[in-house]
Amino acid sequence: MTRIAHVLRRVQTRATPQHEKILGSNQVPNMAGGFAWKVSDWRRLDRFLVLGTEGGTFYIGERQLTLDNAQALLRVIEADGARVVRRIVEISAAGRAPKNDPALFALALASAKGDPATRKAALEVLPKVARTGAHLLHFAQYVEGFRGWGRGLRTAVQTWYAQPVDRLAYQAVKYRQRDGWAQRDLLRLAHPKAPDEQHQALYHWIVKGWDWAGDEPHPDPALRLIWAFERIQRATSTAEAVQLIREYRLPREAVPTQFLAAPEVWEALLETEMPITALIRNLATLTRVGLLVPGGEASRRIVARLGDAGQLRAARIHPIAVLAALKTYAQGKGERGKSTWTPVPQVIDALDAAFYATFQYVEPTGKCWLLALDVSGSMGMGTVAGVPGLTPRVASAAMALITAATEQHHTFLGFAHQLIPLAISPRQRLDDVVAAISGIPFGGTDCALPMLWAIEHKAKVDVFVVYTDSETWFGKIHPMQALAQYREKMAIRAKLIVVGMTSNGFTIADPDDAGALDVVGFDSAVPSVMADFVRA
Ligand code: CA
Prior knowledge:
alpha/beta; 3-stranded antiparallel sheet; 25 helices; 11 strands; globular; binds calcium ion
């Protein structure tokens, strides 16, 4: 071959090395030295709302990643502020994200930087997004960075504090302060006019406290919780604390630390229907204080509650929260290794089942699914939703199990710069899968491998699902080109779903290919979105 023939032959559109842009495409450089597509700012909004930026990525620090997302957020707020506000409510109110903070941050930004209609809309939905006292305190923290306490913001906070007095009293004792902000500060800034005497008394307690906490419960039933809170602070015995918790349904946050080592205190908290969120978070403590033992009554009750799918959904329990609890609980020691406990196997099994139950139910499509997990080095860095040890690679394995549990015809494939054998199945318990995935060595990234594997093995695949950060760079051919070759050689109009596992701005899915879809990892609605796309 002459030199010119050689040079000309190497430029083509059917197989381009990943470190070059596909000729004629609108690909952009990713952070790894390869080329991918830029996701739209709207998709970036979804990634931000669901995945957040905590811990950054392998390539981008937490602060820069947050700034990049905030800039994308500003662009969509300017393009269509009302749509942004609707999207924030959609994702937040349905509990589709592991953490509510990105939604609160986005709402704060919209309430400051949107046009007047957007600002108004953002403040109107505040109670829908800031559903607890903790949410409101976090919102206050974010919003102060973007705007002052004008009338609109004051009115919104006033409305929040006008909620029914019994609910407000519960929020006030449960979330007195968070990260340097107290309910007191908010009331002072918003100075709401109390709608009635009960609210007036409650506001007074929040701001100044009561100098009265007599022996008799408060005459007003709506304010008895506050009275009980004051009493338990002065309690001198565990028996007294237990009695107050039982009678007035005090939440754990109201209980002084010195009582929290006593099993009977936890027993009382459990009996008064401890919220399931708190229950999941406190399983280790409940075991350590000796309340949870194999075959015990408390274990039986907790297993029953974890098995109640309706309750899990009503409380908006996110699968990540269950996964995080399971991962920590099963290892029998805290992240810093100080405290230890002996995990109760039935509780681990119940958490395993609860994980699957927290996703929306999906009708099987009956198609052939290739579930391809990027286990390269970058997927092993950073954390999902700030959960220690929960890397994108571990999280994506858990995510893939959901589809595997639904779809009978599925194949798992792991890849980095080469294919990696993956021995996981939805019949395994999640903690075993986490251990299996965590132990795989790291490598470079070639997201084309799943398609190349299917070509080589003539495997029938209706849909390739690639769980990745799209920081692909290693291969001789781009993933979309490999997909095109698969479609051609197998005469199957195979689809590609890219499950984005970080809130970066890239995707290997060509936005112009109707057979390719980019979704956001750990959106609890995603498995059903994927099934709909595959069925279409
Ligand atoms: Ca990588």
